[in-house]
Amino acid sequence: IATTFFISGALAGAAGFFIGLRFGKIDPFIGLSFGLKGLAIMIIGGLGNVYGSMVLGVLVGFVEVMMVAYFSDAYTPVAVWGLLIIILIFAPNGLFGSQIKAEKV
Prior knowledge:
Radius of gyration: 16 Å
């Protein structure tokens, strides 16, 4: 467990370093938009469903690129959050369903 935490911390540090190089500044809130987008992808794919999150991560990336290509960069958050709202209305468990089982008492 300690090795896993060490590796995840090292990867998070490397990701923060490269994001700082990409954007040219270091800010405590620089990863907030990435984290919220990841949360939305996790909910859309289905809680606890790793395959759903992987598929939706690629799909959301594709939709964002198409939004930038055909509209403006300012509309990319609309694609992610609009997709989240639509999926929660029609499929509350996510597209691939939830893997979390509730325990009956």
